[in-house]
């Protein structure tokens, strides 16, 4: 090619490049996908803003660990209600089914069964047939599968085939063998009924301790990745243990599983189980998002900080005693505004003996139900009487991993009115489960444009 042709070709390419480019040589930044905020199902948007957090000076006892302090929190989405039994059962069933599917796939692999063989073979790992893998799946299978203690890490279980729970329809002896391991032994059954061995319902997840990574810049990434394994089934015995010399067996037997209580708040969950639920909710939603081509991943669901919880509970009302304002617990028609213990020994004066449905009573101005009463709620904070003194005034959060005393807020069906106040603080140990403690989740709002100062 002579020099004239080369110069002409270069000029043509330059023209084509400049014409086909939207940048025109300017610094316009990388253009990503357009972001359209989507309100998560069952949640309400809580606009960010400033508020006075803590107790008034006339509460001499409470002001010691909750002195008044002006803080600012960012915008979040928050569950309109406490997490219900039905919603938590979705988590429990997902964990149970995942474990069953993994056990079926492992046994199918051990006995050399594939989908074409039928029976347990239908539940074989999806990579049992390597012929239909994409290039990426083949690469991951060749390089990462089995790099773990069991040898089955990284292999995909088959969720396309329904599990069979009716014993009369079990497809073969291998399937029967796996299902038998998920129930309590026969010697522990009574009245001809076998029940699930709920100690097998364990959820595994990992997360990065960003706070630790930020404080120790030299730390390796793998050293701040924390792996957890949590039994997810709620402790239904709390209905017995929390109240000595009291007949609460019906609540122990039916409250979590029976459909009559599906819309009631889940109880008997520890702080660690509430955290695990948040992780699962994120995984579950993002698994769905991945199945939709082009759908954006959602950010993490989590427990609210103490400041976020109080800000949301106030519903935009400054200096209010309760989520509805106050200072009274009855409406102008003489009706109680929440589910609590209004009279000594009389739990039913508010028309509820135990908990009530999660969407009961009137919501506050952020459309949140039962931010006072019904069940107390775990928050992502460690209890320290002096934490208000040293915490930041912007998005304050104090959560020490070594401090096992975790804050609960809002009061419950068995508490007196004082603990229903939006500024009251209490705590329980992270590994404790109670018949009067539940939780709700939040998700960070992407962006900072939604702000609102509380009503004066």
UniProtKB/TrEMBL annotation:
Keyword match Lipoprotein: yes
Keyword Hydrolase: no
Keywords from the named record: Lipoprotein
SUPFAM superfamilies per record: C-type lectin-like
Highest taxon, organism lineage: Bacteria
Pfam families registered for this protein in UniProt: FGE-sulfatase
Ranges where the Sulfatase-modifying factor enzyme-like domain occurs: 43-442
PANTHER family associated with the record: FORMYLGLYCINE-GENERATING ENZYME, SULFATASE MODIFYING FACTOR 1, 2
NCBIfam families: GldK
Protein name, per record: Gliding motility lipoprotein GldK
Organism: Algibacter agarivorans
């Amino acid at each position: 090619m002579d020099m004239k042709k080369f110069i002409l070709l270069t000029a043509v390419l330059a023209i084509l490049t400049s014409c086909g480019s939207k940048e025109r040589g300017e610094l316009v930044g990388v253009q990503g996908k357009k972001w359209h905020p989507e309100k998560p199902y069952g949640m309400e948007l809580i606009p960010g803003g400033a508020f006075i957090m803590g107790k008034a000076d006339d509460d001499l006892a409470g002001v010691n660990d909750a002195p008044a302090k002006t803080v600012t929190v960012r915008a979040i989405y928050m569950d309109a209600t406490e997490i219900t039994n039905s919603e938590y059962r979705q988590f429990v069933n997902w964990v149970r089914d995942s474990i069953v599917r993994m056990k079926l796939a492992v046994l199918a692999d051990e006995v050399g069964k594939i989908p074409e063989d039928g029976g347990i073979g239908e539940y074989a790992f999806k990579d049992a047939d390597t012929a239909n893998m994409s290039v990426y799946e083949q690469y991951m299978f060749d390089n990462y599968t089995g790099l773990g203690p069991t040898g089955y890490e990284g292999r995909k279980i088959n969720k396309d085939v329904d599990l069979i729970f009716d014993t009369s329809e079990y497809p073969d002896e291998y399937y029967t063998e796996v299902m038998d391991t998920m129930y309590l032994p026969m010697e522990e059954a009574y009245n001809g009924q076998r029940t699930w061995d709920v100690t097998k319902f364990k959820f595994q997840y990992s997360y990065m301790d960003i706070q630790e990574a930020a404080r120790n810049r030299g730390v390796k990434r793998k050293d701040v990745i924390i792996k957890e394994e949590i039994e997810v089934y709620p402790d239904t015995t709390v209905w017995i243990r929390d109240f000595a010399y009291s007949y609460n067996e019906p609540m122990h037997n039916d409250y979590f599983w029976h459909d009559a209580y599906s819309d009631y708040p889940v109880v008997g969950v520890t702080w660690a189980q509430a955290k695990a639920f948040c992780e699962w909710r994120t995984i579950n939603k993002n698994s769905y998002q991945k199945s939709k081509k082009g759908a954006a991943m959602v950010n993490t669901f989590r427990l609210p900080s103490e400041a976020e919880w109080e800000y949301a509970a106030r519903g935009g009302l400054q200096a209010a005693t309760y989520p509805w304002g106050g200072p009274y617990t009855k409406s102008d028609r003489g009706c109680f505004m929440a589910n609590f213990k209004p009279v000594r020994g009389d739990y039913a004066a508010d028309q509820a003996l135990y908990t009530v449905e999660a969407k009961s009573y009137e919501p506050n101005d952020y459309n949140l139900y039962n931010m006072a009463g019904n069940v107390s709620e775990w928050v992502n904070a460690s209890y320290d009487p002096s934490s208000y003194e040293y915490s930041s005034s912007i998005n304050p959060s104090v959560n020490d991993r070594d401090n096992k005393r975790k804050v609960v807020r809002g009061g419950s069906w068995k508490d007196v009115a004082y603990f229903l106040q939006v500024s009251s603080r209490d705590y329980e140990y992270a590994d404790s489960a109670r018949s009067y403690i539940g939780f709700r989740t939040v998700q960070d709002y992407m962006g900072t444009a939604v702000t609102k100062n509380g009503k004066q």
